[in-house]
Every structure is written in structure tokens, then in C-alpha cells.
Design goal:
The complex is a heterodimer of chains A (411) and B (146).
Chain A: H1 5-11, H2 17-33, E1 38-40, E2 44-46, H3 50-65, E3 78-80, H4 90-93, H5 97-112, H6 123-126, E4 137-138, H7 141-149, H8 160-169, E5 171-173, E6 187-191, H9 198-212, E7 219-222, H10 230-244, E8 250-251, E9 271-275, H11 277-285, E10 295-303, H12 305-315, E11 324-328, H13 333-338, H14 341-347, E12 351-354, H15 363-370, E13 374-377, H16 380-386, E14 392-395, H17 398-407
Parallel strand pairs in A: 2-3, 2-4, 6-7, 6-9, 7-8, 10-11, 10-13, 11-12, 13-14
Antiparallel strand pairs in A: 1-5
Chain B: E1 8-10, E2 15-18, E3 21-23, E4 27-33, E5 37-38, H1 40-43, E6 44-45, E7 50-51, E8 67-73, H2 79-89, E9 95-100, H3 103-112, E10 115-118, H4 124-127, E11 133-137, E12 142-145
Parallel strand pairs in B: 4-8, 5-8, 8-9, 9-10
Antiparallel strand pairs in B: 1-2, 2-12, 3-10, 4-11, 6-7, 11-12
Helix pairs in contact in B: 2-3
Classes of the chains: A alpha/beta (411), B alpha/beta (146).
């Protein structure tokens, strides 16, 4: 990779050891992908729950932040994805003390490096929405696909070590979705049915993700009616990224780089797949394997204020016989508290958790501790993930999930 | 992704395949092959070193010390940390070979010092026999079936 004077100084350790280690890592990745140089980035977003880091990752973070050198700090706004707990609710989740200790050590290390602990995977709704053409180093696949597709910004999937490196150096290797060539459509979908509910949007994203195949595929989708809005596209993108490792999609007439099909080269592609309601319902039906449920979870992505308000409306007059967990960001939670939304959900027996994500919070261990196996959710992303953690996840609308918490049965 | 000509040699005893992307140190090991994806979070019991995702073609099999030959990287960003954590305990594949890689697995290989090859002009999962002994040479970006 070509390095400018500042980058050469970082590599020589002249800007601190953290910057040196960071740029060494970035050069390895850049060389792997054939990046010619670095591109400056305006924000970094780090996924770093301690279930993923483990003791080894936490020690690495502590070593990076432990030199006592004030230069060992991020150079651009750098924020965090959800943590592995909500400390106020850890007892209810039956998380073990060692999990919380690891979380606290991780937070301490990040704070020393100047990282802002925003603990959110919906930063595009709550912190600062990226703008078109803005180069970013974002972690969390749902954040990346939303920022690329809905906002028109430019980021690859940046795993925790790489996103932190970008924060420390203020740049990232220029490859993948930072380049115009990779933002053109590669696979064309025709959709003849427009979802209405969030779980339907998520399931449609999952269907497209599975068919699109891999990270370098860029689906362009025709046929959707109307303008879905942020929460629907949040579920759509998060599921597509989860099922297919997709980082960018275009919706003709909706997303900013595809006002017309030809804007993204779509007119040169044959229609590879036609998708209707049947394909979406088939994906949902594939998870409908039991009538009984042990727990209801709304998470992945964290809920917006509007989703929480809808949930609170559905909780009115009910009393739950199964745990119902709703997970949101630390930015949304205070508003939910002020507006009485939290109180309405918890009056029915639900719990509103903040700053964590269900699957990033030792999902296997809390399942065993609480006797949770059959899980109902309206998140297609969550059902895709939790099978590997030993759950039997089932996908249903928010309404049906709330009814399941009340009756113990999923209609 | 950079484009380099694919190179395949099929002699009487050795097949060799050239990748477009490579990182890590040379290794030799037993190939665990499937036309399926890979995500450390979605697919694995990382404590015991086995595939646990029910729908995965390698479910129930141990990946420890094996050369994984798979179709594509899947799933979320956690794999970048998880490969490093797995390596710290020695419950880790010896190398990972993909038809198509995503940045997360490449970043994880760089961070966890794991050997990786990716990018072939043919389906590498159809070319490498399951259980074969393979030699990975990242400096030359080659996989050889011994």
C-alpha cells in the first residue's frame, strides 16, 4: 500500500504505540484485498461484546490502552455497538459475575482510548446519520448495510479490531465499498409483494440475502410500493446482511444511489429472482416448529422509540406468563422512560433493557440459566443467529409475539 | 477484489490451486470440506471446537487443527474477535480456505494470525476431497492437495 508521510510516521511509532499497532493491522488487511492506499474516515463504530472478545481480546485491549501515553487515543469520533449486558438487568438475565467483570474491564480500556460508549447498533437513528459519500469504518453488519444503502455512505464490514484501528488512525484501507466499482448492482430482483410488518420486511431481506450469496453481491430490487421508512428498512437490511453477508443493496426509486435502475447498472442485468409473498411466508414457516414458547425477545436491531411505543400499545391490559424482553439503546431508553413507554411494557410483566443486544449477551449461558429454548421474536436477523446457540427460534409479528408472552403459545 | 489469473495444475499425484488473496504462515493439514458458509458466531460451539448450527453441512464435526475448505464467509462482525479468542485457546482451525471471503474473516485472520486463502476461479470445495491432506503456502497463494 502507498503510505503518505503521516501514515509512515504512524508505522514508525512516532504517533504512539497504539497507532503503530493499528496501522500494521490495517496494512495486513489492505494488502490482502489489494488496497492501493488509505481513505480518511469520519467516524468509527466498534463491535466488541465480551462474549466475542473473551479473556484474550480483553487483555489485548488492556495492553493497547495501558501505555500511559496520551497519544494512544482515537483520532476521530469512535463509538460502540451494544455491550454484553445491561448492568441494571444482569441479575434478571442470570448472567454470571465473571461476565460483568469482563464487561467492566473492556469499558475501562475503551474509555482510556477515548472511545465513546454509545452501546448501540442503531447509531444511524440515534447518534448521527451518515451522509451520502461519507467514508466510514463501521462495525455491526446491520449498521453498515443501512449506512451504505439507505444513507449512501461508504463502509466495509469492519470487525472490532479493524474499526478500533480506524478510530486510532483516522483512516481505513481503500477497498470494497469505498470504491465506485463495487457499488454497482450485481444481481437483480423483482419483488411483486410489498411487506407491511417489520417481521415481513426482515423475512424479505433474509430471502434476498440467501439468494444473493456473498459479501461482494449487490442486490438491486424493483417492484416495492411506497416508501418503507427507517424501521422497516432497518429490519430489511439487518436480515439481508445476516442471511447473506450483504453490505449494500439498492431499491429502485427509494435508496439514494438508485433513483433509476440504470443508475446502478441494473438495466444490464437479467432478472435473476422473482420474489412474492409465498417466498417470504416460506422462510417464516421454516422457523414455525413449535406451538409453545419459553421467552419473547425484541432485539437485533435495538428498538427505536417508535417500535417501543407500538410495543407498549400492544401490552395494554395484558399480563404476561412468559418473559418478554425488549432491548433498546441508551439514547432511546431515557425517552421511553420519560414518555411512560417503559412503564407500560413493564406493567404487563415485560422488561426493557438498554445498551445490550440479546445475542451478544452470552445467549447460550442465559438460555441454560433461565431454561429458555423456544424463543419468539419479530426479528429475522435474530432467528438466523440463535439456532447456533441452541435455541429454537420462531419468527412472528410483534402482535403475535406479545400474545405468545400472554398465553405461552404462538398462534 | 484484485483479479489475477487462476492457475491449476493437475499432475499424476498433486493438484495445485492458486488463490487471489492470502495471509499467514504455511501449514499442512487434513481438509474439512463443505459447500457451505462460515461464521464463528452463527455456526460453532467455540468452547468444544465443533460445528453446531443444525443446518450446517459440517454439523457435529470438530474443526480443531483442520484446514477448513468452505464456500463463503457469512454472518456478523464478531468473527474478527472470535478467531483471535479461539486461537488463544488452541481451539481453532489450522487454516481457512474460501471461494469468497468477506472483510471480517480476513480481518480476523490478520488479527488472530490464522492462515487464510480466498478467491479461486473454480469452486474449491468441489476440487479438494474431504479428508485429503493439503498444503497451504500463503507466500505463493497456493493450495496443494498431497
Amino acid at each position: 500500500m502507498k503510505l503518505n508521510e503521516e501514515e509512515q510516521a504512524m508505522l514508525a511509532g512516532e504517533l504512539g504505540q497504539a497507532a503503530r499497532l493499528a496501522i500494521e493491522h490495517q496494512i495486513k488487511v489492505g494488502d490482502f484485498f489489494g488496497a492501493e492506499d488509505f481513505v480518511p474516515v469520519t467516524q468509527a463504530h466498534i463491535m466488541a461484546d465480551t462474549e466475542s472478545l473473551g479473556e484474550a481480546g480483553v487483555r489485548w485491549l488492556e495492553s493497547l490502552s495501558g501505555h500511559g501515553d496520551s497519544r494512544d487515543a482515537v483520532r476521530i469520533p469512535t463509538i460502540t455497538d451494544p455491550r454484553g449486558t445491561d448492568f441494571a438487568k444482569a441479575g434478571m438475565l442470570k448472567q454470571a459475575p465473571w461476565m460483568l467483570t469482563l464487561e467492566r474491564r473492556t469499558i475501562d480500556a475503551f474509555v482510556k482510548l477515548g472511545v465513546s460508549m454509545t452501546d448501540t447498533c442503531i447509531n444511524y437513528q440515534t447518534i448521527q446519520a451518515p451522509t451520502r459519500g461519507e467514508h466510514l469504518a463501521f462495525g455491526d453488519t446491520g449498521v453498515v448495510i443501512y449506512s451504505n444503502s439507505i444513507c449512501g455512505a461508504r463502509s466495509n464490514f469492519e470487525g472490532g479490531p479493524s474499526a478500533l484501528s480506524a478510530g486510532l488512525t483516522g483512516r481505513t484501507p481503500r477497498y470494497g465499498f469505498h470504491l465506485d466499482a463495487h457499488r454497482q448492482a450485481t444481481v437483480r430482483f423483482q419483488v411483486d409483494w410489498t411487506p407491511q410488518s417489520l417481521n415481513d420486511w426482515g423475512a424479505l431481506g433474509g430471502v434476498i440475502g440467501r439468494l444473493a450469496g456473498n459479501y461482494w453481491s449487490v442486490p438491486v430490487v424493483e417492484g416495492l410500493q411506497g416508501y418503507p421508512g427507517s424501521d422497516a428498512l432497518k429490519h430489511f437490511g439487518a436480515a439481508m446482511a445476516s442471511f447473506g453477508s450483504i453490505a449494500l443493496f439498492h431499491l429502485v426509486g427509494i435508496t439514494p444511489e438508485a433513483s433509476l435502475l440504470k443508475d446502478v447498472g441494473g438495466e444490464k442485468l437479467p432478472v435473476s429472482h422473482r420474489i412474492g409473498q409465498a417466498e417470504v411466508k416460506a422462510l417464516q414457516a421454516s422457523y414455525a416448529v413449535d406451538d409453545e414458547i419459553d421467552v419473547v425477545v425484541f432485539s437485533a436491531p435495538q428498538l427505536s422509540l417508535y417500535e417501543l411505543r407500538q410495543l407498549a400499545d400492544l401490552c395494554e391490559g395484558r399480563r404476561f406468563v412468559r418473559p418478554l424482553l425488549a432491548v433498546t439503546s441508551p439514547q432511546v431508553k431515557p425517552d421511553a422512560d420519560r414518555f411512560g413507554i417503559t412503564g407500560r411494557i413493564e406493567a404487563a410483566g415485560g422488561q426493557v433493557l438498554s445498551g445490550m443486544c440479546f445475542y451478544q449477551s452470552y445467549a447460550r449461558e442465559i438460555a441454560e440459566a433461565n431454561g429458555w429454548k423456544r424463543l419468539a421474536t419479530n426479528s429475522a436477523k435474530l432467528v438466523n443467529i440463535l439456532g447456533g446457540y441452541g435455541y429454537v427460534p420462531m419468527l412472528a409479528s410483534m402482535e403475535h409475539c406479545v400474545e405468545a408472552a400472554q398465553t405461552g403459545r404462538l398462534a | 477484489m484484485s483479479e489475477l489469473p487462476d492457475h491449476t495444475m493437475q499432475g499424476s499425484t498433486v493438484m495445485e490451486f492458486k488463490a487471489r488473496h492470502a495471509i499467514g504462515l504455511p501449514v499442512t493439514g487434513e481438509a474439512l470440506v463443505a459447500h457451505d458458509g462460515f461464521s464463528a458466531r452463527y455456526d460453532l460451539d467455540r468452547i468444544n471446537g465443533t460445528f453446531t448450527r443444525p443446518a450446517h453441512k459440517l454439523v457435529g464435526q470438530s474443526y480443531v487443527g483442520k484446514v477448513l475448505v468452505l464456500d463463503t464467509a457469512k454472518g456478523g462482525v464478531a468473527s474478527a474477535w472470535m478467531l483471535h479468542e479461539m486461537a488463544s485457546r488452541g481451539i481453532v482451525p489450522k487454516a481457512i480456505v474460501f471461494n469468497t471471503v468477506n472483510p471480517i474473516l480476513a480481518q480476523g485472520a490478520a488479527f488472530g494470525d490464522i492462515t487464510m486463502l480466498a478467491g479461486f476461479d473454480q469452486d474449491i470445495t468441489a476440487k479438494v476431497p474431504h479428508g485429503a491432506t493439503v498444503e497451504i503456502d500463503p507466500a505463493n497463494r497456493t493450495l496443494r492437495v498431497l
